[in-house]
Amino acid sequence: MKILGISAFYHDSAATLLINGEIAAAAQEERFTRIKHDKNYPKKSIEFCLDFCGLSIDDVDYVCFYEKPFKKFDRLINTHVSFFPNGYRYFKESMTEWLGSKIFLKRQILNELNKLSSNSKWKGKLVFSEHHLSHAASAFYPSPFESSAILTIDGVGEWTTTSYGVGKGSNVEISKEIHFPHSLGLLYSAFTSYVGFKVNSGEYKLMGLAAYGEPIYADLIKNNLVDIKDDGSFRLDMSYFGYGNSFKMTTKKFHTLFGAPPRKPESDLSQRDMDLAASIQLVTEEIVMRISQFVIKETGQKNLVLAGGVALNCVSNGKLINKRLFENIWIQPASGDAGGSLGAALVTYHKMLKNPRIVNKNDSMKGSYLGPEYAQDEVESSLEELGANFSVLKDEDLLKTTCDSLLDGKAVGWHQGRMEFGPRALGSRSILGDPRSPLMQKTLNLKVKYRESFRPFAPSILNETLSKWFNLETKSPYMAIVSKIKKTHRKDLCGKEEDSFGLDKLYLQRSSLPAITHVDYSARIQTVHKETNPKYHALITKFNELTNCPVIINTSFNIRGEPIVNTPKDAFRCFMGTDLDLLVIGNCLLRKEDQNPSLNKDYKNNFKLD
Fold first, then answer.
1. Which of 364, 482, 464, 369 is nearest to 418 (CA)?
2. Residue 270 has pLDDT above 90, yes or no
């Protein structure tokens, strides 16, 4: 049984291929097209999934789209009717888009599938899931639990913005929902926009910025914008929000409440911006906590799984885990819309077709290493074609040389094995650095990533050493949990340092790992496991042998506004367009000083700022 799941036409289009219920391949379209958050039909992702598994579309039995377009269209119509006559321009443009293409998605998808068929007509069956059911399925079916509560929170699907339910065996049932326009995801996105970041892209920046502020606006938010009930359900006062009938997230009433118009993108950040970020982060955590308390009471389940865009809020996840409401929590690494392709395929296989489920005690995501990989001869051919100078090393020499470069303060591009599925680089398409260096955060942010200086970097740590370094008692292979560094590794601040505020906090050394320790002593942790990524595990093991530090910096291999690199060519272009010092692809090692200077490119202007 071969099932293809598709998500598309909003943001983060993707495709996933199941073979007899096993996740065989999955990838986001942006990695192939090089368009950040590409929303178009995932043609290249589908072609990858089929090619990787040696299949054609004629071998596929079912294709499942991750949501129901007509239900979404119904929401659009009803929303505009409720706001009429306000927002007519928004209504007109939305209708033009829907009537021009989106309402005919079934026909469009079938036409695309037929193009891939050797018979010019695909013989399989096209089916549709619901958006939040796809999220729920992506969270439960790959999880390591026989049964669990399921919580999905995002901006909006067709109508649903929040849902909970229960998964048991091969069945998933949704119990209750909160509907548009009342949305925690859109509430958070409204503040993302107000603070000057891009919606559906900058929410993680707002989360990182929150640590620099104080939640002084939290009560103002709860007293005016959102009415939170004891069970975690909530209602927004829509007079403060524009997303229901305009192209803007917030209204003048919102701006008056907080005393200023929205921050202009790329302008200087103020303490007020940081306090706003801290405030909405606190409110978000409170809502998630209340909902979770209600869900455990209603379901009686000891396990919880999470998906939807809000499940990527790693700070909230960490606090939920620390609360110990549930014995175990598992978070889908591709929690956003890309993961909807996985959920759609799983809904088809288990819920629609009633196939049994085999539970993997770790999980069924294979470390989320589900994308393309490149053989050594392919890597060498690509580099030769590009005019690159490189050497080929044995594994042991490669690891030692890479570690020596890290010890010398070098920034290293690391391209190995299968590409990650989801928004996080997990040691296959990563930029690496020495976390002990007090200069490395600034170097990577400003000279390599070309991004805002306040943004923290994540540590990759050998899972077997986690308890010695962080206050986290559960593995975190998908970089989805924030936790504090242990006090034994912290450095005390003194004098004027303790009185610093705002971005003045940025370059204070707070621990023996200053490059990955955020201003509140936290870090977004990735535990590295030999079973899922043996080469990356071996690299950190070698680094630990040399330094007695089982941690390295791991950030995504890209610059600001660019999708994570996919091919060796993508990696080389990024290497030559930034201040990366070393590039390791497969067993090929490239030093910047050995390259032809004419290959240097003005790289950072190739991509729109996110």
1. 369
2. yes
* CB burial string 35-56: b at 16+ within 10 A, e below: bbbbbebbbbbbebbbebeebe
Q: Residue 129 has what DSSP assignment?
A: -
Question: d(Cα 62, Cα 137) in Å, to the nearest integer?
Answer: 17
Helix (H) or strand (E) holding 98: helix 88-100
- Stated as kind and residue range, the H or E segment containing 28 is strand 22-28
Copy the structure tokens of residue 195: 């603070």
Binned at pLDDT 50, 70 and 90, residue 216 comes out as very high
Q: Measure the CA–CA gap between 252 and 242, rounded to whole angstroms.
A: 9
**pLDDT, tens digit, 9 for 90 and up, residues 299-332:** 999 999 999 999 999 999 999 999 999 999 999 9
Which two tokens mark 335?
A: 């929690």
In Å, what is the CA distance from 195 to each residue of 273, 310, 325?
6, 18, 33
pLDDT bucket at 238, cuts 50 / 70 / 90: very high
For residue range 335-382, list pLDDT tens digits in order: 999 999 999 999 999 999 999 999 999 999 999 999 999 999 999 999
Pairing of strands 429-433, 226-228: unpaired
Structure tokens at 476: 């975190």
Q: What is the dihedral of CA 463, 466, 472, 474, to 10 degrees?
A: 20
Q: What is the pLDDT of residue 90?
A: 63
Interior CA angle at 335 toward 334 and 340, to 5°?
A: 85
In Å, what is the CA distance from 337 to each residue of 200, 285, 334, 539, 558? 10, 21, 8, 32, 21
Calpha distance 538→144 (Å, rounded): 25
Phi-psi category of residue 362: left, alpha or beta, with phi > 0 → left and psi -120 to 50 → alpha: alpha
* Whether residue 220 has pLDDT greater than 80: yes
Cα 317–Cα 426–Cα 203 angle in degrees, nearest 5? 45
505: pLDDT strictly greater than 90:
no
- Amino acid of residue 210: A
Report d(CA 70, CA 364) in Å as an integer: 32
Write the DSSP assignment of 289-306 as a string of letters. HHHHHHHHHHH--SEEEE
CB burial of 420-444 (b: ≥16 within 10 Å; e: otherwise) equals: bbbbbbbbbbbbbbbbbbeebbebb
Instruction: Show the beta-strand stretches assigned E in 129-184.
Output: 147-153, 160-168, 171-179
Give the separation between CA 237 and CA 533, rounded to whole angstroms: 47
Backbone angles phi and psi of 518, in degrees to 5 = -75, 170
pTM for the model stands at 0.95
Per-residue model confidence as pLDDT tens digits over 158-211: 999 999 999 999 999 999 999 999 999 999 999 999 999 999 999 999 999 999
Task: Report the Cα 581 to chain-centroid distance in Å.
Answer: 27
Dihedral (CA of 335, 341, 342, 345) sign: positive
Beta strand 412-415 with 429-433: parallel, antiparallel or unpaired?
antiparallel
User: Do residues 153 and 311 lie in contact, with contact meaning Cβ atoms separated by under 8 Å?
Assistant: yes
Residue 503 has pLDDT above 80, yes or no: no
DSSP state of 445: I
Find, among 343, 389, 386, the residue nearest to 65 by Cα. Answer: 343
Query: Considering the chain, what percentage of its residues have pLDDT values greater than 70?
Result: 95
Which amino acid, 69? Answer: P
Enumerate the β-bridge partners of residue 180. none
Report whether 189 contacts 155 (CB < 8 A).
Answer: yes
